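To: structure subgroup
Subject: Chain for Friday's discussion

All,

I'm putting the inputs and outputs inline so they're searchable in the archive.
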Amino acid sequence: CLWNLADDYPAPRAEVMAFGTEILREENLLPPMVGGQSSKKKKQSERARRRLTDRKRVANQRMKDLLLPEGKLIYPTYREGLWSVLNSNREEWSSDAASE
């Protein structure tokens, strides 16, 4: 049995990545660009292009009904989840950023 799981706010990958980049930048934890931005767009594989444009959504009610007795996620959206990851790793990432 295979389950696709989702939070309460399924979002396009680009939105999630942009939010992650934004919070890392706000916290001065974004590593410097290696080689800078290229003006030429890198050639992308067909799979990579599809991943950027996919508009699939996954409902999570069945998962919540079967796996979560209270029906609540600890991190209801990717935003809370990413902030939690950042806060759990802030000290380590800050020291790594300072040593670069």
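Points worth raising on Friday:
The radius of gyration is 17 Å.
Helices lie at 13-26, 46-53, 61-67, 78-99.

D.
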